[in-house]
Amino acid sequence: MYYDKLIFDLSTEGRKGYTLPKAEVKRYDLPKSTYLRDDCPGLPEVSELEVVRHYTNVSFKNFGIEKGFYPLGSCTMKYNPKINQDMANLPAFASLHPYQPIDTVQGVLKVYHDTQTWLSEISGLDTFTLNPYAGAHGELIGLMIIKAYHRDRGDSKRTKIIVPDSAHGTNPASATVAGLESVEVKSNPDGTVNLADLKAVLGDDIAGIMLTNPNTVGIFEKDILEIARLVHEAGGLLYYDGANLNPLLGVARPGDMGFDIMHINLHKTFSTPHGGGGPGSGPVGVTKALKPYLPKPVVEKQGDQYVIIDEPKTTLGQISHFYGNIGVVLKAYTYILSMGREHLPEIAKYSTLNANYIKESLKDVYQLPIEGICKHEFVFDGLKDKSTGVTTLDVAKRLLDFDVHPPTIFFPLVFKQTIMIEPPETESKQTIDHFISIMRQVALEASQEPDKVKGAPYNTVVKRLDEALAARKPIVKYKDLETN
Question: Which fold has domain 382-472?
Answer without folding.
Answer: Aspartate Aminotransferase, domain 1 (3.90.1150)
